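Students often ask why we bother encoding 3D structure as a string. The short answer is that it lets us treat folding as translation between two languages. Here is a chain of 364 residues written in the first language.
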Amino acid sequence: MRLTVTGGGTGGHLFPGIALAAAMQERVPGTQVLFIGTSRLLDQQALADRGFELATLACGGVKGLSLGSRVRNLVQMPLAIVAARRMLGRFRPDLVFGVGGYVTGPVLLAARTLGVPVVIHEQNSVPGMANRLAGRLADRICISLPCQPPFPAARTVLTGNPVRQEILAAAKGERPVHEVPTLLVLGGSQGAHRVNLLMLEAAEVLVAEGRPVRIIHQTGTADEATVREGYRRIGVEAEVSAFIRDMAGVYRRADLAVSRAGATTLAELAVMGLPALLVPYPYAADNHQLTNGKYYEKTGGCVVVEEAGLTGEILGKAVSERLHNREELHTMAAKMRAMALPDAALRIVDECLRLVSSRSGKPF
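And here it is in the second language, the structure alphabet:
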């Protein structure tokens, strides 16, 4: 099996692609993977040491940009399609799998011109522009949760969101009981400045209560030093880093999360059964993080707290009420785990293999 995965720019796009590629390699031994992404540092860090062949494509999006930038990126598109066609022609994939982001467009268009089957995956409840367009090209559309607007029903399959193997493995063990409760703060792969500032204010509320707490905080690059110094000044035991590579490890150590509501993070929290206070990014395209969060909140495993009007005091009290109530945390954990689809990657692999077999006659 020769598989091309394309997408990138955020962890929410990258990690499902990584999970799908790893699941395909496990199902079909000897599978070779070409990952076509962006040149961003995040992509390079997340894909390092995965054993995939890597390529980058120079292209840009159009949504939310100035007129000049949109024109420049549209002019660049034909060159990107030619470059993608050259990459695919050399690699000769049996299937191209798109996970979202502007880099997917030229690759999927190139795949169609070469007659290569195309599958895409939409992580969010509101499809992004790239995937709305890609849905017109795809032979199969896999979704994590119900989408609005919906994709064509005949080509759409609800599979869930693939979660990396190391997180699936971590989820199988019993969560250790921590003497000092641990709060995990996540702002997405690039950090969340407003959440970072709110958490420093919330930490003062937790300290004022006099009950011990440990914090693991992923800040993004820009705020790492500021947040680390802030916790030191307040007197809170905190591990602060710009980017966390061992997410499985920190999920196991946490009792509660404060997080944005990206679809991939939500899928990982659900698999781990980790309760959460969700602060959706209010400027996400079509406010999709709020819709994501509300979908998960309905079972009671997490609580959505909208950023508008949120203060450090309100956040601190919301954290404290749950972090020091083990019975409630246990109940929320079970409800969060009920939302999980841990076999999502395998469901997508099945769809991909059925499609390739029907097109090529190759048995897998």
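Translate back mentally: The longest helix spans residues 67-91. Keep this in mind for the problem set.
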